[in-house]
Amino acid sequence: MTKPEGSEGAVPVITIDGPTASGKGTIASRVAQQLGWATLDSGALYRLTALAVLQDGVNAEDVESVARVARELDVSFRGDAVYLRKEDVSLRIRQEDIGNLASRVAVYPQVREALLERQRAFRRSPGLVADGRDMGTVVFPDAPLKIFLVATVEARAERRYKQLKEKGFSVNLTDLLDDMRARDIRDASRASAPLVAAPDAITIDSSGLSIDQTVQAVLDHWSSRRG
Ligand code: CDP
After folding, report:
1. Model's pTM, two decimal places?
2. Of ligand 1's atoms, which has the minimum distance to the CA of residue 135?
């Protein structure tokens, strides 16, 4: 059972928030692997909402209908695979059209509210590494370690370019940069749960760090927190 927030002995959570393509997902899953903890990819829930909106032909401007889609989302996570209504959509939700729509529907407070408890339910012993935009500020404000992972927009666009290429998608670096800048502005300027570092978060700039170095930096912070 999850203990009430902030209580002594509550299941520990490490939150990793940051802008698009800052490497949150990769770092979160490696850190979780090292600690033997579970992960929450909160962005996947927004992406799944976006995909369901698209599949159902729901008007993305109609806040109430989009929130209903989010509330009724039939999803499951099995290992690295993500299912929507029993269909494996792991690859589909990574495409840029879905990422952009996710960022649009994530602006609605009703959608965020609809996904809140679903996210908190991932908190299970022995611990959770949660990545997103508002993990440390809204979803798990009592997390004992909060990381704010940043990187220059150029470094992030390069990474996303490679990632999408490896998955076999055709991509254009200039378009990616433009999309990324637009997404940064939308994520940071929205009224509900904007992308900001929690006051008690530690900022790590991964522009010049390898994945291993970034993972190690997070683990070092966790060790010193506990020690
Ligand atoms: O991979 P990338 O960082 O671009 O996206 P993601 O983490 O999969 O999230 C997709 C979109 O969902 C983001 O652009 C955010 O607008 C939104 N999101 C959010 O609002 N809050 C979260 N906790 C996670 C994602």
Report:
1. 0.89
2. 23
